[in-house]
């Protein structure tokens, strides 16, 4: 039996391996791996659809959100179903269901992104502070690290939804309260994650090598340790968008969310659908499916991103 | 200061690792050696003999917690062990630089090579970006990296192991340090690449008039490069002499064993190899006598009991009660 051999490859001097084409950094390499991963593509498409619908909401419907102009058609026993004017029918307050859905997407996206951004900014700052000082070590370094992390531990000891509920209750019923509440619940996650990876990177050989060259501590932390540690935090942010979207809906469901009836919100649509579930299950199923769709998209994409950035999965 | 004064003078260096709940481990003890300006000195020993720890202690790179360092490390008359962290940071990279063993992990994987070369130049010579970039390019050219402009934009994983070690040598020598400490600089490389990298190292060190402290377990590397050799065993220097004397006639049984263990090309086929019996874990503490005694074929009763001091015997310093014969012509029997 003969085995066909590939033509022997002459590797030019200095070019070892196939990875050696210029300019393939960590992120570009990760992008390549993402493109080869089917669940990354599915996740990305789902996220893209969600974001596109949210952004173009005013173009996708000719009605205004939350307008109750067809409320006369809603009776205690029935909610009008799909019709030529309203292709998903009306909701129980007499608004156009499709309009509520697309504006709800907009609302979820804004809430999700803003609250995650709050969580990421505050959490990553705390984590970088603790991790930076912790990886430098010494008495002051350890003290700062410990102080920051005890604070974060206190936040972490409160269940995130409970924390969000208390903050929303404290700040009153408005959109800012919801965003801050959900963001605050994410702070410990980001802080611990970034600190942990900074501490482990702080023991890496290249840090010792930089130390041996007399590079300043701040430069080592900001220029070497932080860039190596930020990957998992970015991944977590993507995953947290999913959680945030669910939590926005959950807070609204508990009556702590946006109180303005003119704002369409998936969680509140679920609440409203409760007592009509037998008559018109679509009232609950549609927003439920939309929440699941958005959360699943971000989760799939986030998990794929985590894999793509993991040095161990690199080929 | 005259030119024969040592550049670096290590006196009675001792490093102890203290872990709570466990007995303290003295990794390095009574280590003394000198390096004159421009001199190449080898520090030889097997894994765990304290070579790397000694080098890290010289540069003040051991963690402050759980490590006790004592003795003196005099660099141009200043004791480095008493310097503040800020002062040491100014000195490291500019006066004394270090090349580490593993070029894969000593470069930051997510930072382009160029940034890592220029940052040390910008740190110590306050050069601006463009100037540092030009310097980095010419440095990379000097260590034999083709197309340095492109390489500077690349990331470490795009470079081969040999090229990475060249980059690390370039970085270490960027600010023309007076002393370069190279810790097993070729251990992680192929044999063919090893020779190239050693040649680059030798040329550049010669170019910059730096002194070199070469830490290695490879006596072949020492034979090709060093003027003076210090052999370490179990944390102490056991033999210290010039290269020629050491290779011509090793006096310490450990050194003799190391030399005998090198396989010879001219030995007949099938001739047995000559390992040193036992392993480095099979040592006794120095305060119960010579730590090498359990593995030594040349030991006598006097080897146990008290630790032998390092003292001048003939043409060299030896830490041995019963050294090998000075006029032993071949080293092949020394390991037997």
What does this structure look like?
The complex is a heterodimer of chains A (315) and B (336). Chain A is built from eleven helices and no strands. In chain A, helix 4 runs antiparallel to helix 5 (138-157) and helix 10 packs antiparallel against helix 11 (282-309). Chain A is mainly α and 315 residues long. In chain A, 67% of the residues lie in helices and 0% in strands. With 336 residues, chain B is α/β, with parallel strands linked by helices. Helix content of chain B is 29%, strand content 21%. Chain B is built from ten helices and twelve strands. In chain B, the strands form two sheets. An eight-stranded mixed beta sheet of chain B has the order 6-7-8-3-9-10-12-11, with helices on both faces. In chain B, helix 6 runs parallel beside helix 7 (191-207). The termini of chain B are far apart. The chains are: A mainly alpha (315), B alpha/beta (336). The A-B interface holds A 13-14, 16-17, 19-26, 137-138, 204-206, 208-217, 219, 223-224, 227-228, 311 and B 59, 61, 63-65, 88-94, 97-98, 100, 102, 105-112, 115, 119-120, 123-124, 145-146, 150, 153-155, 157-161, 163, 168, 171-172.
Question: Which features characterize this protein?
Answer:
heterodimer; A: 315 residues; mainly alpha; 0% strand; elongated; disordered N terminus; B: 336 residues; alpha/beta; 4-stranded antiparallel β-sheet; 12 strands; 21% strand; globular; disordered C terminus
